[in-house]
Amino acid sequence: MELEDVDLFLEVGQVYNSESSGRLFAHADKEFAGERSILRELRDLGVERASGDALPPASAQSFLKELGRSAPAVVISDFDDQYTNP
After folding, report:
1. Which of 14, 42, 73, 86 has the fewest Cβ atoms within 10 angstroms?
2. Sign of the C-alpha dihedral computed for residues 59, 61, 69 and 53 taken in this order
3. What are the boundaries of each domain within the chain?
4. Backbone angles phi, psi at 67, to 5 degrees
């Protein structure tokens, strides 16, 4: 598989810590409208859309840099707008 074959990058980040509320959030790069369908599917699974419109620090950013940002990325985490590490 080549990086050029990647149509969507979905990363599962931290999904639970002792202070999390049990809610999950999907962070998506605002540049791509194509991630809307995956966000709808994730919402059906109980994953909320994060309030921000940028990706948090994640491995996805390295892949996007390598791909020249030619694919949408979604990062699932247990935080909305601020990471907490208790």
Report:
1. 86
2. positive
3. 3-77
4. -85, -5
